[in-house]
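Q: I'm writing a short methods note and want an example of a predicted protein-small molecule complex. Could you take the sequence and the SMILES for flavin-adenine dinucleotide and return the bound structure as tokens? Please keep the output block clean; save any remarks for afterwards.
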Amino acid sequence: MSNRYDVIVLGLGGIGSAAICHVARRGHRVLGIDQFSPPHDRGSTHGQTRIIRQAYFEHPDYVPLVLRAYELWREVEAATGQTLLEQVGLLEVGPGDGVVVPGVLASAARHDLAVERLSAADAERRFPGFRVPGNYAAVFEPTAGFLHVERCVAAHLQLAVQAGAALQTNTAVASWSRSGNAIAVSTDRGEFRAERLIVAAGPWAAHVLPALGVPLVVRRKPLYWFAAAGGDAATCANWPLSVAAGCPTFLYELSQGVFYGFPQFDDRGVKVARHSGGETVADASTVDRALDAADCDAVADFVEAHLVGLARRPRDHATCMYTMSPDEHFVVDLLPGEPRVAFVAGLSGHGYKFAPVLGEILADLVDAGETKHPVGFLGLDRFAGST
Ligand SMILES: Cc1cc2nc3c(=O)[nH]c(=O)nc-3n(C[C@H](O)[C@H](O)[C@H](O)COP(=O)(O)OP(=O)(O)OC[C@H]3O[C@@H](n4cnc5c(N)ncnc54)[C@H](O)[C@@H]3O)c2cc1C
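A: Understood, no commentary inside the block.
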């Protein structure tokens, strides 16, 4: 394998796998480097599924990006012949004056998106797997759904390799530096050089971007799979919390926190987790993956109160990580003083749905130093003077 490339992509997880696909498809000689062999379960992109939705309660400016992501997900499906995005809809529940329901309605109004308002009773009638507190509001977004996340990473890498990308997996990057007009990337398997570098290191971003100047906090995020009470999930394909019965993905904003989950589609069960909170992780490489009893109890309390017919004790769990930026919005930009280096960081627990459009943006940034996508609100500028 030659060690000189047009572009090196550091990190082939959720976003790096999409970035290398876009760079390779533009005809560049590109090398992707990862310390593991993606898709893997050591970073932020595992655990079967990720929600994808359009009426973005966090900020309406994400909507044009997610609409482009939908187009690109469908293109990846067509190119690989696989189903990646299941458009099962999303039920969101919360106080009428909270963050989620008003945020969904504001984004939908601004971008003319189809969202249905439901009373608590209507929501329970339509989706009998859920309990919705009478004083809460609900919205249903029919175009939302979920992505099969490991399958998506594999699909992007497959397309990248088909377009000529080289992959250097199980290879840890120790450091990188500019050397004249090239970037030299030093790894435990030797040095690689390229004209440009894309960094998509997820929860390791602070290690490989030490000069970023934005504090990133990594949080431990457990996930749980629940089976039907008194029954094997495998035998309950038609119960109300299954895809087969028309159950959507779901997200509840409650005083105890924000909880979300996915309908059952295989014998692993119904996946549920808490979006808010999470212990700070000092080193992503040594995150504690044992069952977190306190978090598990909080999720089980949510399950008992709001989902119909699930056993309280999870049948399986996994541990993932969020990388929080100071304002919980993504950071996507060129590195200050290093116009040959583009990066994405601080996806704050909601970035995967955007993977293909972020890949396209990173490819634009290393190609032309700019992108036509409206990502000004995600740039480093917003932190100027605050860090
Ligand atoms: C539990 C959980 C639920 C989530 N739910 C949703 C959701 O419903 N919808 C949504 O849109 N998003 C969701 N997210 C967020 C989303 O999954 C992440 O933002 C996204 O997947 C992160 O991708 P990444 O490429 O930044 O990180 P990763 O996938 O972790 O990739 C980083 C890669 O860089 C590699 N790397 C790092 N440092 C080095 C080095 N020095 N040398 C070599 N390789 C290196 C790592 O090995 C890794 O493969 C969720 C995240 C979690 C944890």
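A: Remarks, as requested: The CA atoms of residues 290 and 319 lie 8 Å apart. The chain has two domains: 4-45+150-213+327-383, 90-142+217-324.
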